[in-house]
Amino acid sequence: MSVGLQTWMIKVAPQAVEAASALWVAVFNLSIGLGALLGGVIVDSLALHGVLWLGAACALTAALAIWTARAHESLN
Questions:
Q1: How far apart are the C-alpha atoms of 6 and 62, rounded to whole Å?
Q2: At a CB cut-off of 8 Å and minimum separation 6, what does 8 contact?
């Protein structure tokens, strides 16, 4: 996914390939760091069963979002 999104960014900004690549690297590394920070805070503040429930809620939310998007797409 990373390579595909980086390719998309370069195609969108062909006149500024270096700037687009630098922006992509910065956003990618920032998201890794924020994900690790948030994950560490959650693991430290919740018991193991709380982390599992949170993961289940995130998976359910993602499934609902996909289902809603597909249902909306089929109407158009």
A1: 23
A2: none
Residues 6+ apart with CB under 8 A from 19: 13
Backbone angles phi, psi at 63, to 5 degrees: -65, -40
Between the CA of residue 53 and those of 24, 36, 37, 44, 58, what are the distances in Å?
32, 18, 19, 15, 9
- The predicted model scores a pTM of 0.60
The distance of Cα 49 from the centroid of its chain, to the nearest Å, equals: 24
Residue 53 identity: W
Give pLDDT tens digits along the chain (76 positions). Answer: 678 888 888 888 889 889 888 888 898 899 999 989 988 898 899 888 888 898 899 999 999 999 999 988 877 6
Q: Which amino acid is at 71?
A: A
